[in-house]
Amino acid sequence: MIAFQQKHMVQLTAIATVCCVLCLGNQAALGQDAVQQPDAVAKASKPKLAIKVGKIITSAGEPIVNGTILVSNGKIEAIGKSDQVKIPDGYEIIDHSDMFAMPGLIEAHSHVGGSGDLNEMVYQTNPELRNWDQIIPHNEQLKVAIAGGVTTICYIPGSGTNMGGWGVLMKSGPGKPEDVIIKAPGVLKIAQSGNPERRGGEVGSGRMGMNHVIRQQLEMGRIYVNEWDRFEAGQTDLKPAVNLRLEYFKPLFRQEIPVVVHTQAYQVVQSTLRILHDEMNLKVVIDHGTFDSYKISEEIIKRDIPVMAGPRGFRYEPDDGQIKGIVAEYYNRGIKSLGVNTDAPVIPQEELFFQASMAVRYGWKEEEALRGVTIEPAKALMIDDRVGSLEVGKDADIVITTGSIIDPRNYVTHVFIDGKSVYDIKTDRRRF
Amino acid sequence: MKTSKQQETHSLTALLLVCTSFLIGSAAVAQINPKTNVQTADKAKTTDKKKEEPDQKTGTSDKKTDTNKQVTAIVGGDIYTVTNEVIRRGTVLIQDGKILNVGQDIDVPEGAKVIDAKGKIITPGFISMTTRGVGLAGTPSRGQKFSDQLNPFDNNIKISLGVGITTACLQVTNSSSSSRRRAENELFVGLDPEINRLEKTAIDFNIDFGDPNTALCECCGLPILATDTIERPTPEPIRPQVNAVIKLSAGRLDGMMVSESVFYHLTPGALTGALNQHTWRANIRKAKDYLKALEEHEKAKAKDPKAKAPKKPVSDELLALVQKKIALRISSDNVSAIRDNIELAKQQDYKVVIDGATEGWVVPDELAEAGISVIITPRRRRSPRFALEDVTGSNIESSKVYESAGVPFGIVPLSSSISLNGLAGRDLTSLPLEAAFAVRGGCSEKTALEALTIVPAKMLGLQDRIGSIETGKDADILILNGQPLDYRTYVETAIVNGHVAYERAADKVYPVYER
Amino acid sequence: MTYRKFILFPLLICAMTACHGLADDVIAYRGATIETVSKAGSIQNGTVLLRNGKIEAVGSKVDLPTDAKIVDVSGQTIMPALVDIYHPITISGLSSGSASRTVVFNGRVFTIPGSSSTAAPTYVKLSDVVDPLSLDSDLSKLARYGVGFANIVVRGYGHSIHAKATPDDSASSIVNPDGTLFLSVTNSTASLDVLRKGLKGSKSRSSSASTSSPTSSTSLWAAVKEGKAPLILNVNNAATIMYVLQIQKEYDKVRMVIVASGADIYRSLDQLKDRKLSVLIKAGIDIAPRSNQRINVAKLLAEAKIDFGFSASLDRSLDSMPDTPLFPVSQLVKTGLPKDKALSALTMSPAKMLGMEKTLGSIEVGKQANLLFLNGAPLDAGTTVQQLLVEGKSVYENQ
Fold this sequence. Notes:
The structure holds three protein chains of three kinds.
Chain A: H1 2-26, H2 39-44, E1 49-56, E2 64-72, E3 75-81, E4 92-103, E5 105-110, H3 140-147, E6 150-155, E7 163-171, H4 177-180, E8 181-191, H5 207-232, H6 249-253, E9 259-263, H7 266-279, E10 284-288, H8 297-302, E11 307-309, E12 314-317, E13 322-325, H9 326-332, E14 338-340, H10 352-361, H11 366-372, H12 375-380, E15 398-401, E16 412-417, E17 420-424
Parallel strand pairs in A: 1-4, 5-6, 8-9, 9-10, 10-11, 11-14
Antiparallel strand pairs in A: 1-2, 2-3, 4-15, 6-7, 7-8, 12-13, 15-16, 16-17
Chain B: H1 2-31, H2 34-51, H3 61-68, E1 71-80, E2 86-95, E3 98-103, E4 113-116, E5 121-124, E6 126-131, H4 155-161, E7 165-172, H5 177-187, H6 193-204, E8 215-216, E9 223-224, E10 242-247, E11 257-259, E12 263-266, H7 274-303, H8 316-322, E13 327-332, H9 335-348, E14 352-356, H10 364-369, E15 373-376, H11 398-405, E16 409-411, H12 431-441, H13 445-450, H14 454-459, E17 477-480, E18 491-496, E19 499-503, H15 504-507
Parallel strand pairs in B: 1-4, 1-5, 6-7, 12-13, 13-14, 14-15, 15-16
Antiparallel strand pairs in B: 1-2, 2-3, 5-17, 7-10, 8-9, 10-11, 17-18, 18-19
Chain C: H1 2-20, E1 26-35, E2 42-51, E3 54-59, E4 69-72, E5 77-80, E6 82-89, E7 101-105, E8 108-112, E9 123-125, H2 126-129, H3 136-144, E10 147-154, E11 157-159, E12 161-164, E13 174-176, E14 181-185, H4 189-200, H5 214-225, E15 231-235, H6 238-248, E16 256-260, H7 269-272, E17 277-281, E18 286-287, E19 294-295, H8 297-303, E20 308-310, H9 317-320, H10 327-334, H11 339-346, H12 348-353, E21 371-374, E22 385-390, E23 393-397
Parallel strand pairs in C: 1-4, 1-5, 6-10, 9-11, 14-15, 15-16, 16-17, 17-20
Antiparallel strand pairs in C: 1-2, 2-3, 5-21, 7-8, 10-12, 11-14, 12-13, 18-19, 21-22, 22-23
């Protein structure tokens, strides 16, 4: 079932993107159609590369020792052992035989993709807000992030209200907003506890009230999407009115994009599972998932929900007075879709790998950690058709390092995004 | 008859009562982890054995000879001596809290307590140069002797030992409470006073909010490290802080206090501005004049015993500074402020340790020439000033720059206290990881290890006691389960003053798992 | 309620008998299980014979004089009345330091402990400032809890009073106005200096301001130094215990009673061994600091062979659990504390700590008739206090 869905989705994605454009086209009145197809212009400037390295961490199976990656049109054209990949003419050979190559790191929870005013508290739920108009591509923080190997971020509104708005999945490299956007809307941000509670007085400042307003808002969205679904399927001639407040619920309820949930602590995570997954049937990413949330792992596994833990990495367990690694606790309980986040700027964006290092220090496995900063967040954010691993046809987001990126003694020497060099310590000052 | 029946009823009721209470009781007792008791008892037993080893220095002399002769031998590990070559599969002998011998072919004396360290790495204990809230029973305040404030049972000691910190240099504010309060308020600019107060409380309770430049996330309340540019500090009053050094001798008060005054420590703005610099020069002149006068007085006293002694015009610490017995420790990140300090040190001829030195990579040769050492945080990232990208801001490669220029550097992590707020790898326990970031910056592993051991020992003037594994030095030794600067490495056993102060498996502070 | 009263009727009879008994009377309590807390151990179906407030005979077979009133207490247990050698009271105007409070910040709760004043504690001779009549409520609490004898202190530093728990006659409760020297010690130079200077013999600077004459404290310290009197030290954490031990090392005759008001004394067990000291703790399961783990400190002390006793006043059970003083102790026994240690820690051990083992702490011939009557075995969870005799007189009956 799941496999079918995924396959179905991969096929659909291209169409979906087009659909998206079409949908947005409908709102031309707004003049804010962020998603265009920039490929025609960009691709021409994208060079053909043959990158030779000592070891490729693909995040799709075993590492390749002495490998070569062919890059053209910003995509990976071929990948394999150097003696098996033939380099055609016209490819610039980049020789890093003493280095490692790996997929660009993916951040599941970031606030540094642009302007930082991401907590607009218009209402208690704000599905009318979106943040991709605020993108500042390749800003100072992202420049350093690239030096930490981060090439994709999930740039999302803050958790000041129960529904902070729609976030965007974007690359960290230079270009116009349309060049860097992978998916917009990329995710919905919901916060189920904690931060929204700090407002004083009004309804929803407690958890009962908050979950009420979240359910109420989602139910409105679901009804809206159902109406459109029926209309588009020809079941009714009545064309529903466009409601900007609810428009982006379409991809959400059609399970094309996930909801990233600010949810942490056992009790809150169980309400996430029950309300957002069981009741609303949404694709859910547990973002944070800290404190004692790992104790509910069994229920998370049943629902096959990914966990992107952070920024807190450990918990001082009062039961036995020990420090517990949060990711390791999930891992030991059998969670496989597991990654880390930084909540940048809480943890600097470039330290995404170090969040994984600390998780390993507290008992996770290094191989898992490498997946946990690449393919696992890509899957969770539903962009694994483009990023997250080094496989033929995927975006050529490649990070060259002096060794395993999880070891802080190693560092990033070169970064390619969409096949273009965006960081090179030979020419740039070393940023991290 | 009636009575006996009543008695019966009574005892029945009592029985019932007993039963219920027993139920309640057993429910409660079920919670009592029998393991804990056993464990503690076991621990008590193991330490019991240790007790037979040297401890009571003030004990009777004949007893002393008995107990203190006990030798501990750490056998089979690769010994990173720091000051000499690495000894593969070597032996360290410990007696009376000191290192008796170290080398490859050393006989273990009969009756020695042997610690098997095969496959392990042995290093000297690490030194934390900036420390708050470790090993103290309270906040040291005016009128209190620092040495009366120690707490060898502080939980933070075990947490620190678990990453290898065996010696801590603690900063103690030594000013009146009102000015201290003002200084504290300055730490958290932009927050209202009530929050400031609570922040202070939080710090007192070891919930760390990072370095003084830390801001709190408006959204989640977590500390966010500053990335803004480094400006010249504004002038502040010259108000020296006390730096005290303690050993993290878990459970043992004896030998915990090492020194109560190791630096003349000033805040960043203390030597900024013409007035401050004038006062500083004048004070130093007073100190020098006094020392001269004292010398002459000694001569005069030989002739005339009634000769009047000169009056001491400055503090003992300043005299020690002028005599080069201790160094000036000053926080300085801005490159021009660093230059000021280099200049002053040369003119006035005293030893300097510069704390932070974030922009010091711009002037490595000047630092080297003036014989100044620095204490750096390789991971700290501050933005360059506009249009000065090449000569301002932090530089991940500082460690390499200093290494090649010959500037000795020590390493401190981003935060100086233990934090249990959940953010991993940022508080005091990230000390060895911070050294890994120095390696990331380009210095050698050897230099990075020195930055945790012998270099700080020299800064503290304690190089004869700590910082390396050499015969005659204090037995502060770590047994590690991996390379010293590997991010996965944990301390298996920490020995402080010759006593096992921490064991990973028994203390269970950090997660224990198979690597 | 009526039912309960009905059950207790026979008890009432014996209680009344005891009440009306004059000190000259000779009374024999017969048929009880007697926990003597002495070499005699536990006596089934035994008899205690009292004369003039003292124990004249005890055993399974006691020859009863003809003038003896005989009270049948079959089914009950008689044990020595509890001895509490650290009962702090508050006297207005003398207390110092601020109470602990709780603040909430960022959704987190911080408890800020009360500040211990950094000033040197002031010497107070309690008998100079206390009005015996004001002791009523304290004595009555103690009596309800089965305590027959208490060493009463104020928080801080000074000279305690020894009192018997006679709430109805508090005017004559003080049996010794020149009690024992006690001191609260924290990790502060000021309080440690009181200890250092006191033992060194120099006049304590802090005493000059107080209401008492400095000579009395000097002589008390001298007695402590020579080992003639114990020194009671309230030490709230293991760190301070280390300091105290360090200071004690220089004075080999000094005998200390460490009142451990904090649970973390268990961390210092190694160092407490083989020292001239006793430890006074609260009875009951403790929580190890910074965790939720439960620990049985008494058991650990017993295993480490460190002399210890219980003080009823160290936790709140004095207020919250009258009549069932042994319930928390039964918990300790259930989790490994030997029964004889438990009973002794309530009675004989504290008596010894105070140097009063010849008159208090056990049911032996010649000792004061401070007896506690229970309705069952002492360490059964449901056992409650039935009656307390102090010097032969009933001071409390549970009705």
